[in-house]
Amino acid sequence: MFSNNYGVAALAVFEEFESPDDIVNMDVEELAEFISVKGKNRSPRPDEIAKAVQAAAKGSYRLPKTVNDSVNQVMSISISSMRAMQSQIKTLDKEIARQFDNIPNTLVSIPGIGKVFSAGIIAEIGDVNRFSKGQAGLAKYAGLAWNENKSGMFERQNTRLIKSGNHFLKYYLCEAAYSLVRCDTEYKRYYDLKFKEVNKYQHKRALALTARKLVRLVFRLLKGNRLYKPV
Q: By three-state DSSP, how is residue 63 classified?
């Protein structure tokens, strides 16, 4: 239900509610506000997430108190470990950004992507001129292409992404695309459009298509050594 099960909003739900009943008994609008605040207003649909969290809480299995207390303690330790690792990641991100200042790059002009995602994308792509098939070749290299159905019917709602490709580049592009959705009007409209087109796998599908759209932009900027200009 969360775009990132280990993000600050998801961890806050696990950490600050002692039992599923606490979530069930909370007003859904108040829960949505809690998720929005804890997620630093980065979630595009806190109301829908709140409803999904409450539905999961209602249908969850209730543990005996002694077992529940033990589980909460284990989860608390796990969350503390996650926070420590997140702190280490922030330190590494700062060092990447510091070294990135010495590298000419056009991708940092894209809103919301920043130096860390740009560095990752550039490092995995290398020389963009090596893709003889253009942005389509780059998309396939990143694993952002779909298998075509043997019957000739091709629907991205049910068709899986190819399993091959550079998984690191795919990760950077998907994360960058989701960040771009929150910062750029054009990409937000595109994500919302793709999200509403289907009734299952909405976020996963919309994000993959948005990342595929970002591939075209990345290829143009790197190929022409240009800066991003919003529409």
A: coil
Nearest to 112 by CA among 173, 176, 189: 176
Q: What is the CA radius of gyration of the chain?
A: 20
Per-residue pLDDT of the chain (231 residues; tens, 9 = 90+): 777 777 888 888 888 888 888 999 999 999 999 989 988 887 778 889 999 999 999 998 888 888 888 888 888 898 889 889 989 998 988 888 787 777 667 898 898 888 889 989 999 999 999 999 999 999 999 999 987 654 444 445 567 888 889 999 999 999 999 999 999 999 999 999 999 998 888 999 999 999 999 999 999 999 988 888 876
Give me the helix-helix angle, 8-16 and 28-38, nearest 10°. Answer: 130
Six token digits for residue 179: 């960040």
pTM confidence score: 0.60
- Measured CA to CA in angstroms, residue 133 lies from 125, 129, 138, 226 at distances of 14, 10, 8, 20
Tokens, residue 124: 């995995």
SS3 101: coil
